[in-house]
Each structure stands twice: as structure tokens, then as C-alpha cells.
Amino acid sequence: MAFRNKNAAILNCKPDILIVSECENRDRLKFGKLTPIPNDFYWCGTNAHKGIGIFSYSKYKFRLMEDINDNFWHIVPLEVIGEHKFNLFAVWAMNDEIHPENRYIGQVWLAINHYGKYLSNSSILVGDFNSNKIWDYKERIGNHSKVVEYLETKNIVSLYHNKHNEEQGKETRPTLFMHRNIDKPYHIDYCFASRELIAQGYDIEIGNYDDWIKYSDHVPIFASIT
Known about the structure:
The strands form four sheets. The chain has a six-stranded mixed β-sheet. Helix 3 packs parallel to helix 4. The chain has six helices and 13 strands. By secondary structure, the protein is an alpha+beta fold. Helix 3 (105-114) links the parallel strand 6 (86-92) and strand 7 (123-128). It has a single domain, classed as Endonuclease/exonuclease/phosphatase (Deoxyribonuclease I, Chain A), CATH 3.60.10.
């Protein structure tokens, strides 16, 4: 949270598009004072201090898809328009105390089935999935493996696993250090993309603990598509 007070670290990396979980809303970001003004911005949340923010620091513009489903608003479906056109699903999978079977990866499972027709086009799904194959045994509407398998039927793959040839659940580079403890590492943040988008090349890197732990218990994912 309090992205307005620590955004310089990530903005110095010059992202074209930036997705931030637990991001405060437009008023609290104070564009032009505490946060550099983006070319476009979309925020979704019920708590002014803690939603999901999508920033464009490039020529890209966002357009919210028409049939957005409020039942899983933490998976934000946007059409991205610019030099390239693609569908972007910004993910912050959340707890659901009312319907616990829908929590975390359950939300993602419901969302990708609802938005399935859009996944047939050039698509990127990126963010905090709060999930890993190691937790497949937990009772959910859909587990992590089912999500990965469904996306593969749409020719959408995890860039990290594709690049490093690692299996789901056996990642060697963590994206979360629980309670900022280096001895509690997990891989729960992902960037999935359509094979057609990465056909000309891509790169993906995971931030390291020493550089980023003072800002968050998560480290950033840097994805670059040619």
C-alpha cells in the first residue's frame, strides 16, 4: 500500500504498463504531486487505500470490456489500444469470506471461464494470483493446475515457466517472501501471455529480495515482449 510514497523505485524501471496490487485510488495517488501523471489509468476497488491500479506510462490507452462481471472485480478486463492491440487481465486474487470456495484461484477460474471468448485473441494475464500448484489440494471452484490447463487450451502460457523450463509448483525463483521473511519464499505472481504475442521473442525477470523487500513482501515481475 501507500504506492504514492514509494513509486519512484518501480517507475525508474520505465514500464510501459504497470499493474499494482494493493494500490490506493486516484485521489490518494495525487497525480502530479506524489505520483507522476500517467497517460492513462484505471483503478478498481472498494477501499480507497487498497485496490488494483493499472497505469500506462506509454502511448497505450485502456478501455474496459463491456461485459465486466462485478462478482470478480479483482480480475480487471481491459482492451489495450496503441502500437499493438491486446486484451489485458490485471489480476489480484482475493479472499472471499462469504463464498470461501471462490477465494483466490477460484476467482481466477471463474473469471477466465466468463471471459473465455476474449482469451481467443491476443491476451495477457498478469498480477498476484495468490496461488501455486502446491495448494491444489485445497477446496476451490478451480485449482491452480486447472487454470494453467485451461489457459493452455487458449494457447496462453506462463512466461516464467516457458522461459526457465520449470514445472508449476517447482519454481526456483520466489515472488513473495511471507512477512518479508527470506526464509518463507513462495511463487504466487505470474504473467501469462498468448503464444502469438511472444512469437517474436520475450523476456521475463523476477526482482530480487535485497532490492525490493523494503517496499513490499512481493517482488516485481518484469515482462518484455518484442
